[in-house]
Amino acid sequence: MVRLVVFVWLAIAAAIGAMGLLRQSPIPPPAIAIGLTIAALLVVRLSPRARQAVHELGPGPLVLFHVVRIAAGAYFLVLGASGVLPHEFTTMAGWGDILVGAGAVWVLLRALPARTSGQRLTLLVWNILGLLDILGVLGNALRLFIQNPSFVDPFLLLPLAILPTFVVPIVIVSHVLLFSWTRGSGAPRRSG
Predict the structure, then answer these.
(1) Is the distance from CB of 40 to CB of 173 less than 8 angstroms?
(2) What would you measure as the largest C-alpha separation in the chain, in angstroms?
(3) Residues 6 or more apart from 167 whose CB is under 8 A from it?
(4) What is the DSSP secondary-structure string of the chain?
(5) Per-residue model confidence as pLDDT tens digits over 127-186
(6) Residue 18: is its pLDDT beyond 70?
(7) Which residue, among 51, 60, 65, 79, has the nearest Cα to 153 in the 3D structure?
(8) Are the C-beta atoms of residues 101 and 107 closer than 8 Å to each other?
(9) How confident is residue 192, by pLDDT bands cut at 50, 70 and 90?
(10) Spacing of C-alpha 160 from chain mean position
(11) What was the pLDDT predicted at 181?
């Protein structure tokens, strides 16, 4: 169920980017990323079925998704070197994503399933660092957009349009969900 929702979301995000619909949107890409993140978190919070689906998915696929950050980070560095995006964005975003993506590989190989306190601590430390990185990148993007609204122009078309409409929300939501597996119970706590 979760995988299907993610693939449909990706297809919609790709179509929006391919059609250039973000160029017509009055909402800038950083705000789109924030809005989609909040919406996804609300769905998981308010829907027992969504919570159950995430529980059944387990932490592995949530961590595995972060491996994509290696490619995204490398691409940011290329875009910075070619002048498409400013270095004050691409340096932090690029190297941060590469490190977090490489850390995801380490977590997948060494800390999952998180059965011991050491494995849970490894997952927790990586998860905190990864969340801080993506929130820092998003905050930096907002700052640069406020200073110069044309900063977001490359994010209005593919391939970068996928970031605010899909990758960034999934990254943040997965980090939030992964905190459940660092508590020692091995699964998310249910509420309601």
Answers:
(1) yes
(2) 51
(3) 68, 72
(4) -HHHHHHHHHHHHHHHHHHTGGGG-SS-HHHHHHHHHHHHHHHHHH-HHHHHHHHHH-HHHHHHGGGHHHHHHHHHHHHHHTTSS-HHHHHHHHHHHHHHHHHHHHHHHHT-S--SHHHHHHHHHHHHHHHHHHHHHHHHHHHHHHH-GGGGGGGGSTTTTHIIIIIHHHHHHHHHHHGGGGSSSSSPPP--
(5) 999 999 999 999 999 999 999 999 999 999 999 999 999 999 999 999 999 998 887 554
(6) yes
(7) 79
(8) no
(9) very low
(10) 13
(11) 83
Count how many Cα atoms sit within 13 Å of the Cα of residue 125 in the half-sphere of its side chain.
Answer: 9
- Cα distance between residue 33 and residue 114, in whole Å: 30
Cβ-based neighbour number of residue 182 at 10 Å: 20
Residue 125 has pLDDT above 90, yes or no: yes
Residue at 78: amino acid letter: V
**What is the reported pTM?**
0.92
- Residue-averaged pLDDT of the chain: 93
Domain map (residue ranges) of the chain: 66-186
